[in-house]
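User: Quick sanity check before I run a bigger batch. Here is a single chain. Can you write out its predicted 3D structure?
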Amino acid sequence: MLVLKENIDNLAEVFNISARENIPLIFPTDTIYGIGASISSILANQEIYKIKKRPEHKPFPILAGSFEQAELIADFKSLNSTNYKFICENYNKYITFIIKANESLPDIFKKDNKVAVRIPNKKILCKSLLLHGFPVSATSVNESGQNFLNNISYIIRDFDKIKLFIEGCTIQNISSSIYDISGENIVKIR
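Assistant: Done. Predicted structure follows.
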């Protein structure tokens, strides 16, 4: 088990280890602690489904360090002008956006050809995602259908199958809001 303190280099390093060794990690996002893996590791992301006991038809949200990195997975050109303006004005407000997925994105990360993407409102996390070079999946640390855990001591105790942890702080301590902006209208999901 590896538990590191949150900083840009440690986050980037565990993202790299996760990708290289095909294993998930737990880390603080801007909202809550997340369990995730680099999108470059399908095997690590498949393992998260097993750990969470989550149905495979429910893809994980993906965190990107910038709009440019988000374009690796989401088709921003498919958005109408109102919806594009909405994401530009709200991307740093703890919101996950459902957008048409890029065709090259593996199926594990999309549903109905859409992807859930968020640019965190946490500079340290964004910088480490950019250093890693790939977006990272991130879903709440809990068994599917249960309340999320946000205390690293409890997380390490209850998720002992995970071998990579970053200990740090979250900003919100609530899940992000979710808006589907893939169609003509902006639809609030949560």
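The mean pLDDT is 93.

User: Great, the batch can go ahead then.
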